[in-house]
Amino acid sequence: MKKIFTFIAVVLLATATFAQENFRIRIHKSDRTMVGFMLSDVDSLTFAKKEVAPKQNLVITLGEVTPAEAMYTIKPSSNDFDYYQFIVSEDSYNLIKEQYGSLFEHDKAWWTAMAEYSPGSTWEDVMKQQVVKGEDTFESSAIISSLKPNSRYCIYAYGIDTNTAKVITDVAELWFTTPQVKMSDNVLEITNVNPEKEAFVVNVTASNNDPYVVTFQTAESFNKLVAQLESEEAAVDKMVDTQTSYGGYGNMVHQGGQEVRLENLKPGTEYVIFVFGYEYGARTTGYKKFVATTLSE
Description:
Mean pLDDT: 88
Distance between the termini: 93 Å
Largest sheet: 5 strands, antiparallel
Number of helices: 6
Helix content: 10-25%
Radius of gyration: 33 Å
Low-confidence stretches: none
Structural class: alpha+beta
Shape: elongated
Number of strands: 17
């Protein structure tokens, strides 16, 4: 600012003093070019602030959130640019920052890996298929099949120029925590198990219609897991967490009293059958177990 006022003072003084003389003033610009004009041509000096185009931005708004899923809306400041959006757990977010330094560098690495499955493609080609434009509402399940209850997640988005592959906005982030699953008072019992060569027919009673799971593991596998985690309770929780991360229990979820058939088992093999309440990707009751062996061939 001091330089500007000094320049104004010098020019005005020179204009008044040397107006009748043949003096030429030269202005050296920051891009190393120069412009010049006759001092006698100067009548007055004015300074106008250059208009700067407003920076594009994205606003993320959280919608309905359950222990396993979230809805959210992303609104860009205009519909003139593309943006990429994603959701990650808190652990993944911290790991990304540690390993890649930024979310964009992580995404770039992911797009590069995906491009290897399409010969002739580049990470830019993959990126162009995953960006969107304009206001839109998204479901977390499109990215993470099932969120974990009582866990923290980050939704993020940034504008990207698909021609230059450059990020053109700040990274918008929205953090939220999924609610805890409500525990069920459903009383579950395994009343009978009929073994076959490659199946079990399991009879289960339930005191209400809350959802529950009937599942199994070989006794060998479950006992190893118990030994590793030093607790049967921890082993069951690990089993549930692993299955949920792979999409959940599907047709193993039931309601009310049921006769459940567990198939595709190995003949002459000892299994542990489990029954427990299950909703939103989490166990909602204690578990009951029954050890049985399939018939030999």
